[in-house]
Specification:
By secondary structure, the protein is mainly beta. The chain has one domain. It is 11% helix and 32% strand. The strands form 2 sheets. It has a 6-stranded antiparallel beta sheet, covered by helices on one side. A hairpin with a 4-residue loop joins strand 5 and strand 6. The chain is globular. 35% of the residues are buried.
Length: 125
């Protein structure tokens, strides 16, 4: 439940960010596997990675995978010691989950919309 609330908070913050999304050490679609409590910023300039509006901060041990374009985004999160990945997209009201092996890294979504969660195994909550 705590993970769901954190993800919901992150999603709420992202909804106000518009299409400008960047995360420390993640300036394009991909993953951040550091799990050291990175800060996610909303920025309004090409190449800006910090100094924008703080959208949220990942908990220690949480990894994030993002696929975004100027038109939208999809993101997934997973705690390094957890057994589920959680995700959502800009054009979906659902939070999706997928069973994952403990210790496995998060994987970036395959597209920047809810189609990323159409693959087998993803379940809308």
């Amino acid at each position: 439940m705590k993970k769901s609330m954190i993800l919901l908070s992150l999603i709420s913050l992202l909804a106000f960010a518009g299409n400008a999304l960047a995360a420390t050490q993640l300036t394009s679609s991909g993953t951040n596997l550091n799990g050291t409590g990175e800060t996610i910023y909303g920025v309004a300039g090409a190449g800006v990675t910090t100094g924008g509006t703080v959208l949220g901060r990942l908990s220690k041990g949480v990894q994030i995978g993002v696929n975004y374009t100027n038109a939208g985004y999809a993101l997934t999160t997973k705690h390094k010691t957890g057994s589920k990945r959680y995700g959502t997209a800009f054009n979906s009201t659902a939070i999706y989950n997928l069973e994952s092996s403990t210790g496995a890294d998060v994987v970036a979504p395959t597209s920047a919309d809810q189609g990323a969660f159409a693959a087998a195994g993803w379940t809308a909550m």
